[in-house]
C-alpha cells in the first residue's frame, strides 16, 4: 500500500528522466534516495527546473519482471492545492529538489507563496566559506544535519560584508564598500542596490538588513567611520539607511565621535540599530575598549546625534558579534583574559533585556577546546532559536539552541583544511522560497 502510494507520488520524475522502457523501481529508488537522507556528506542543490521537455500529464503502464506497475502522475488526479499541502510538509531541500522534477511541479512550488508565508519559519541554515578568496562553500541544514553545495549569487569574495534577515541576504564588497546586493540565496533571486551616500572608502564599515516578515519590505543600514585627517582620536561617524519601498537612501547621522570609532558589527532588532564601537584611546584600558551603541531607526523624523545612546559591554571582549534572535539583541563574545585582552579564555552569550545584559550561556569547556586551533577570532551568527559559532582556523561548527539550552557540533563539513593559513568564516540565513529582493 505504502509502496504504491510512492509510485503514485513520484511518477512525474520517471516520466522526466527516462524513456518508457526504464526500470521503474530502480528509478524510484534513486529518486527516493535523492529526496531522503543519503550517505554522501553533501549534496548539490539547484533551485531551477533545468529540463527542456514539457511533461505530458499522461498515464503510463510498464512491466518489469512480470510485475505490472501502473504509473499515474499524481498531478493528474490531485488538485494543485492538495499538492501544495503535500509539498509544504517536506523539508526545504526536498522542496527545492522537487521543483526541478518537472514544469508542473516547478510552477506549483513557485506559485504557492501564500502557503509558504503561513508556514512556520524554517530553522536557519549556516553558509560556510571554505576558500580564502572565492565566495565558495557549503550550506548546513541543522535539522537534517546535511551540507549542501550551493552557489551564492552576487558575492565575489568571502571577505565581503554579509547581513541577513527573514530569508534575504545582503552583501557589500570590501574594496569600494559601495556595491551592495540583496538576494535570496535559495532561489537565486537578487537585486543591486543604489550606492550609499557618505564618505567614500571609509576606514571601517558595517552592514545590517532588516526584512519585515509580512510585507517583505526591508531596510538596509550602512555605518561608515573614517579618521579625521591628522587627528588619531577623532572619527567621522555616519549612519545611512535604505528603504526598499522608496528605493532610496537617507543619511540619519553624520557626526564626529571623539575617542571612538565604528567597527564592523551591527544588527537591527525591533526597529533599533545596534552597533559596537571601539575605543581609539591608549591600549591597556581593556574595560573601555568597546561600547554598544543604540539608535532607533523606526522613527521617521530626522534625528539628532543626542538620540544615540551607548552602553558598556558586559565584560572585556574580543570578537563581539551582534545577533537578532526573534527581535531580541544577543551578543556572542570572546571573554578576554584580564591581563591579556587579545587572548580569550572562553566564549559567552548575553541577551539585552530591558536595557540590561543578562548572561545566557557560556560555551562549555569541552566544546571550547573542541575548536582546536581557536585563534581568538571566530564567526558567530544566528536567527530564531539557533546560534552558530565557528573558529576562523577550522571547519568545526558549534550550534547552540537557545530554547533548549543545548550545544551540538554540526555534522562534519565536507571540506578539510588543506594549508595552515586557510581560513573559514560564514553567516546564517533562513532558507525561504517565497521572499524576493
Ligand atoms: C574587509 O577587509 C579587511 C582588510 O582585508 C578585513 O580586515 C576585514 O575583516 C574585511 N571585512 C569583512 C567583513 O570580512
UniProtKB/TrEMBL annotation:
Pathway listed: Protein modification; protein ubiquitination
Domain named F-box is located at: 78-119
Does the record carry Signal as a key word? Answer: yes
Q: Please give the InterPro entries that the UniProt record associates with this protein.
A: Beta-prop_At3g26010-like, F-box-assoc_interact_dom, F-box-like_dom_sf, F-box_dom, FBXO31/39, Gal_Oxase/kelch_b-propeller, Kelch-typ_b-propeller
- Work out whether the entry's keyword set contains Signal: yes
**Sorted alphabetically, which keywords does the UniProt record give?**
Signal, Ubl conjugation pathway
Q: Name one Pfam family in it.
A: b-prop_At3g26010-like
Signal peptide span per the entry?
1-18
- Tell me the PANTHER family matching this sequence: F-BOX FAMILY PROTEIN (PTHR10706), F-BOX ONLY PROTEIN 31 (PTHR10706:SF130)
According to UniProt, the name of this protein is F-box kelch-repeat protein
Say which species the protein is native to.
Musa troglodytarum
Amino acid at each position: 500500500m505504502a509502496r504504491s502510494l510512492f509510485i503514485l507520488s513520484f511518477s512525474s520524475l520517471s516520466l522526466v528522466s527516462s524513456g518508457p522502457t526504464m526500470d521503474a523501481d530502480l528509478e524510484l529508488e534513486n529518486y527516493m534516495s535523492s529526496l531522503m537522507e543519503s550517505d554522501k556528506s553533501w549534496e548539490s542543490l539547484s533551485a531551477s527546473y533545468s529540463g527542456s521537455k514539457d511533461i505530458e500529464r499522461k498515464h503510463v503502464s510498464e512491466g518489469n519482471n512480470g510485475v505490472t506497475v501502473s504509473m499515474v502522475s499524481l498531478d493528474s488526479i490531485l488538485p494543485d492545492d492538495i499538492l501544495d499541502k503535500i509539498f509544504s510538509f517536506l523539508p526545504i531541500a526536498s522542496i527545492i529538489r522537487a521543483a526541478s522534477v518537472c514544469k508542473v511541479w516547478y510552477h506549483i512550488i513557485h506559485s504557492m507563496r501564500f502557503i509558504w508565508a503561513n508556514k512556520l519559519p524554517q530553522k536557519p541554515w549556516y553558509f560556510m566559506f571554505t576558500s580564502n578568496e572565492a565566495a565558495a562553500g557549503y550550506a548546513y541544514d541543522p535539522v537534517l544535519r546535511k551540507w549542501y553545495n550551493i552557489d551564492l549569487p552576487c558575492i565575489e569574495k568571502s571577505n565581503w560584508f554579509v547581513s541577513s534577515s527573514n530569508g534575504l541576504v545582503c552583501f557589500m564588497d570590501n574594496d569600494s564598500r559601495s556595491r551592495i546586493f540583496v538576494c535570496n540565496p535559495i532561489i537565486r533571486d537578487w537585486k543591486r542596490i543604489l550606492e550609499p551616500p557618505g564618505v567614500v572608502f571609509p576606514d571601517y564599515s558595517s552592514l545590517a538588513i532588516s526584512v519585515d516578515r509580512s510585507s517583505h519590505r526591508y531596510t538596509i543600514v550602512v555605518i561608515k567611520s573614517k579618521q579625521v585627517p591628522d587627528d588619531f582620536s577623532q572619527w567621522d561617524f555616519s549612519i545611512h539607511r535604505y528603504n526598499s519601498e522608496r528605493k532610496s537612501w537617507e543619511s540619519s547621522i553624520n557626526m564626529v565621535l571623539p575617542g571612538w570609532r565604528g567597527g564592523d558589527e551591527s544588527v537591527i532588532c525591533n526597529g533599533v540599530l545596534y552597533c559596537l564601537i571601539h575605543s581609539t584611546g591608549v591600549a591597556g584600558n581593556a574595560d573601555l575598549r568597546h561600547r554598544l551603541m543604540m539608535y532607533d531607526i523606526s522613527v521617521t523624523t530626522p534625528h539628532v546625534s543626542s538620540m544615540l545612546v551607548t552602553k558598556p559591554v558586559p565584560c572585556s571582549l574580543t570578537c563581539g558579534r551582534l545577533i537578532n534572535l526573534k527581535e531580541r539583541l544577543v551578543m556572542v563574545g570572546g571573554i578576554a583574559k584580564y591581563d591579556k585582552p587579545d587572548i580569550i579564555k572562553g566564549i559567552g552569550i548575553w541577551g539585552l533585556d530591558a536595557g540590561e545584559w543578562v548572561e545566557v550561556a557560556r560555551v562549555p569547556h569541552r566544546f571550547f577546546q573542541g575548536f582546536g586551533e581557536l585563534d581568538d577570532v571566530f564567526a558567530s551568527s544566528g536567527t530564531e532559536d539557533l546560534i552558530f559559532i565557528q573558529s576562523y582556523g577550522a571547519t568545526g561548527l558549534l550550534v547552540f539552541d537557545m530554547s533548549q539550552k543545548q550545544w551540538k557540533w554540526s555534522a562534519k563539513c565536507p571540506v578539510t583544511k588543506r594549508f595552515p593559513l586557510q581560513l573559514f568564516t560564514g553567516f546564517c540565513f533562513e532558507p525561504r522560497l517565497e521572499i524576493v529582493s
